[in-house]
Task: inverse folding
């Protein structure tokens, strides 16, 4: 049904992304395409849903056949009836502002009768428990909820083939479980599903076939069972993430030993205007110089917690005391630095070096180069920050924080959408910061990162529930 | 629990009527066409958006509009006769605000109460070409996105200490625009790709699950609009 015949593809102005792919996708099965970043997973998906060659231009050799026809000959509009697509980024795959219209959108474009579309939507809501998400403003939904709507929109079109490109990159445990339900439904309906994904653990119960890619080629093909029986080391050797599907919230870390400085947080209470209070923590002590992970489900206020910590939320009157100094909100803006999930938002200049220089109190080029050197950024000092890879951008943001002498660094989901080696790279960076005596506080739902490098784990729910216990140890132990 | 799609029209009037009103307000209030003899129509058009906001229970917007109207008209009453220089500056700015406000509120109302999909369906019924409709509907969808991105960037700048008092004011505009444009380009591309894989294309016969049709109130408003235009033209013959 879907065949790659000696397919090679090279993006316009880029290097080869697919090399001599010759493979048939099994109809009615769920196929996982995995491999390290840049291995060609996404390109494979784009060949199937027709975005290559119709939207992303480049040099396509060989033939991609969908339903016995070459994709170059089928207009995208026709192909889209047959292949449905879910993408990675929940914020940029919506055309409508309300959820109901969004689910109907594809069917409307196919010119289906309104009554028929409405029947389908109602059926779908019954099957997949979407009721609470209907008739809502998409901009008010969490990432996980948005991704559910994206899946529902595709499901409503009832295509025979469904492609998903890293659908879980921005989802927490709960969101991933929602995705699993969708996959289970599609499996039952006998759809052909193609998923490109880094996080493989949650997929193991559903996949029939696995393609492991490397450098534009299919390196290995195996059945779902054979794949599930690979050990962690064997997976890591292939550049893949581990297969423990663990909820970061319920993981345990060994307790800290020895004495260390304390960071005292007081009056941490915040809720958005007109909404319920997200957290209310009168007083809590955190250990200084550690890597502290704050965990909790999507929409529970993890990111907001960081925003309050670094002083971005004006209405949060919290105080933070460290080394005998007490900082109010405005002062915290100078002592804390947050690396945002979308790091593009915080790189402003046209040179990496400039980015560091403007953060220094007095511009000092030598010192700036030293900081860049420590973060492996010397060679790119003259490049435009936005031309760098995701990991490099993250490090540039950290460099500017170090340049301005911040003591406490906050990270919002630093490893979402990263493969194993890049996740390790971030872990090393965090560890280096710790060795330099900085305190790192991060929010994450990446269990592997937690295990790899974090020394303290706190769940926002626990912090809230046990607000009367003033030390983090007590909160952790649950006494 | 069974779910039924709620097909009741989301707002009192059809998207086409909203567009017509927006056009009328632009011509007769903002543009001031017709001059003196249009006073009655002028004031009706000024208060149409406020009433519409009220009818949709957009309380916040309604109160803001009443407050701003009240203040500006109040200011206009006081700022008459001989004015000191700063007073005339104030009077001039109030005058500009008063001229623009009704159109701004009407546009805000249209955005807040029209579904993208209704807008496309209404546009199709008006036989507008897809090449115009699709970009305009994307703009609809884009405004909140730009707002979200912009506030993220503003926060990031606050953290870096790049603000008006920071001694780096001259770079502020550049620093703000570069990441914003970069973000919006990426989002725009991803959005187009997603829309294409869901079958959106120029020239398709598209259906719409929402009921887009003209009702009594729409005809009433249209009648009023025609009357306004005729009055403006005929009035010109007599006076």
Result:
């Amino acid at each position: 049904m879907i065949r790659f015949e000696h397919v090679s593809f090279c993006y316009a102005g880029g290097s080869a992304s697919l090399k001599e792919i010759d493979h048939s996708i099994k109809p009615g099965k769920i196929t996982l395409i995995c491999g390290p970043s840049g291995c060609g997973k996404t390109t494979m998906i784009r060949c199937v849903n027709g975005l290559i060659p119709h939207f992303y231009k480049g040099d396509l050799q060989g033939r991609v056949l969908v339903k016995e026809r070459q994709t170059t000959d089928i207009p995208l509009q026709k192909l889209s009836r047959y292949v449905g697509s879910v993408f990675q980024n929940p914020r940029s795959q919506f055309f409508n502002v309300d959820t109901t219209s969004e689910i109907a959108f594809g069917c409307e474009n196919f010119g289906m009768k309104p009554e028929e579309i409405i029947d389908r939507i109602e059926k779908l809501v019954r099957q997949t428990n979407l009721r609470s998400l209907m008739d809502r403003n998409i901009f008010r939904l969490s990432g996980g909820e948005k991704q559910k709507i994206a899946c529902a929109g595709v499901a409503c079109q009832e295509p025979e083939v469904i492609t998903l490109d890293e659908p879980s990159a921005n989802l927490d445990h709960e969101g991933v479980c929602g995705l699993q339900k969708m996959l289970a439904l599609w499996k039952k309906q006998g759809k052909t599903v193609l998923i490109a994904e880094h996080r493989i653990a949650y997929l193991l119960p559903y996949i029939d076939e696995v393609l492991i890619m490397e450098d534009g080629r299919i390196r290995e093909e195996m059945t779902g069972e054979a794949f599930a029986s690979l050990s962690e080391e064997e997976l890591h050797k292939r550049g893949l993430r581990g297969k423990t599907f663990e909820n970061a919230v319920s993981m345990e870390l060994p307790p800290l030993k020895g004495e260390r400085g304390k960071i005292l947080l007081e009056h941490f209470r915040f809720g958005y205007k007109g909404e319920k209070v997200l957290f209310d923590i009168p007083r809590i002590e955190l250990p200084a110089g550690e890597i502290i992970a704050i965990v909790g489900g999507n929409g529970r206020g993890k990111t907001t917690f960081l925003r309050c910590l670094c002083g971005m939320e004006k209405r949060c009157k919290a105080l933070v005391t460290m080394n005998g100094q007490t900082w109010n909100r405005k002062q915290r803006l100078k002592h804390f630095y947050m690396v945002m999930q979308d790091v593009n938002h915080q790189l402003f200049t046209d040179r990496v070096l400039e980015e560091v220089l403007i953060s220094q109190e007095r511009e000092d080029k030598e010192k700036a180069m030293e900081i860049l050197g420590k973060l492996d950024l010397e060679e790119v000092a003259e490049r435009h920050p936005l031309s760098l890879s995701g990991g490099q951008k993250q490090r540039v943001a950290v460099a500017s924080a170090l340049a301005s002498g911040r003591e406490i660094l906050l990270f919002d989901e630093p490893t979402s959408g990263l493969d194993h080696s890049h996740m390790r790279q971030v872990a090393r960076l965090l560890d280096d910061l710790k060795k330099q005596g900085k305190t790192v506080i991060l929010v994450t739902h990446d269990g592997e990162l937690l295990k790899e490098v974090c020394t303290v784990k706190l769940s926002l729910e626990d912090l809230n529930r046990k607000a009367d216990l003033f030390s983090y140890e007590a909160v952790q132990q649950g006494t | 629990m069974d779910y039924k799609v709620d097909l009741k029209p989301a707002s009192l009037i059809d998207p086409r009527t909203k567009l017509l009103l927006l056009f009328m307000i632009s011509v007769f209030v903002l543009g001031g066409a017709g001059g003196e003899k249009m006073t009655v129509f002028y004031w009706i058009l000024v208060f149409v958006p406020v009433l519409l906001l009220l009818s949709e229970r957009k309380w916040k917007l309604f109160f803001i509009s009443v407050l701003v109207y009240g203040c500006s008209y109040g200011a206009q009453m006081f700022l008459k006769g001989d004015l000191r220089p700063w007073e005339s500056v104030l009077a001039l700015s109030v005058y500009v605000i008063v001229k623009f406000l009704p159109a701004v509120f009407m546009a805000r109302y249209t955005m807040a109460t029209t579904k993208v999909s209704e807008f496309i369906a209404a546009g199709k019924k008006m036989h507008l070409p897809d090449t115009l409709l699709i970009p305009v509907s994307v703009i609809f969808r884009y405004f909140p996105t730009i707002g979200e991105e912009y506030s993220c960037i503003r926060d990031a700048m606050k953290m870096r200490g790049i603000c008006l008092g920071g001694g780096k004011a001259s770079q502020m505009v550049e620093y703000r625009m570069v990441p914003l444009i970069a973000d919006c380009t990426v989002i725009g591309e991803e959005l187009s790709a997603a829309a294409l894989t869901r079958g959106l294309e120029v020239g398709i016969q598209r259906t719409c699950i929402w009921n887009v049709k003209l009702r009594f109130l729409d005809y009433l408003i249209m009648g009023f609009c025609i009357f306004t235009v005729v009055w403006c033209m005929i009035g010109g013959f007599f006076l």
